[in-house]
Design goal:
Blueprint: H1 3-18, H2 20-36, H3 40-43, H4 46-81, H5 84-106, H6 121-133, H7 140-150, H8 156-166, H9 171-190, H10 196-203, H11 206-232
Helix pairs in contact: 1-9, 1-11, 2-9, 2-10, 4-5, 4-7, 4-8, 4-9, 5-8, 5-11, 8-9
Length: 238
């Protein structure tokens, strides 16, 4: 597996890590609500909360991975309709552009990227009442179930990563890409409850958002350079 093949999965992991500046604002309220719904005895002891927090996040990442499987499979199906080489170039180019767009969005230079969140609103309107009926949380397994619903919350960052998964080449690689993305978000979301104030203050700093955004955009530029290098070194399309 060459570097160009591994780059989308590595980028998805880094997008998840650096995208924490977006997660704090997007998911902070949800983390607070879920933490407040825990049994009083569990809320009083931070260490006892950990199995519940891991359950929420395992469910969330599972849903991301399932969505990645679907996106990767859909992309592979679309690639079967077009000539193989053309399909690969189109999907790789799309993934590179999305990396660039995600980075500019996080840096505050491409606000329109967030509008793709509207695509998931119809599904979320059906799932959100189900999640409310599952409250309060009674066990880590219960938290896992709620986490799987949380994973379908409309989020521009998640949807942008899914567009990258669309170009992964197979359902398995699409699922792996979204798994890497989910694992990247884990450190921020896990610490959000206890460090919410500090995280919010830190991620609101313009230089933090710009540094994260430009770093991700740099991966997009690198992907485009690799793609152009591949094009220059190959025969013209017929």
């Amino acid at each position: 597996m060459d570097f160009g093949t591994q780059l989308p999965i590595l980028t998805a992991l880094i997008v998840g890590l650096l995208g924490g500046v977006h997660c704090v604002g997007m998911c902070g309220g949800i983390v607070g609500m879920l933490s407040f719904s825990l049994p009083p005895a569990v809320r009083a002891e931070p260490l006892r909360q950990m199995p519940y927090l891991l359950g929420y996040n395992a469910g969330r990442i599972l849903s991301y991975s399932v969505a990645g499987l679907l996106a990767g499979g859909l992309g592979a199906l679309a690639a079967g309709v077009l000539p193989l080489r053309l399909a690969q170039l189109v999907l790789q180019g799309l993934a590179a552009v999305m990396m660039l767009a995600i980075g500019l969005y996080l840096a505050g230079l491409a606000p329109k990227v967030s509008r793709i969140e509207h695509l998931g609103q119809p599904l979320w309107r059906r799932l959100e009442p189900v999640g409310r009926r599952l409250l309060p949380v009674r066990s880590p397994g219960h938290a896992l179930l709620l986490g799987t619903l949380w994973g379908w919350l409309p989020c521009g960052l998640v949807y942008s990563a899914l567009i990258m998964a669309l170009s992964a080449g197979s359902a398995a690689r699409g699922g792996l890409l979204m798994l890497a993305f989910g694992l990247g978000t884990l450190p921020t979301v896990l610490t959000m409850g206890s460090l919410a104030g500090l995280l919010t203050h830190f991620t609101r700093k313009p230089w933090v958002r710009r540094a994260a955004g430009f770093s991700i955009a740099g991966f997009g530029v690198l992907s485009l350079v690799l793609l152009l290098t591949k094009l220059v070194g190959q025969q013209p399309l017929h």
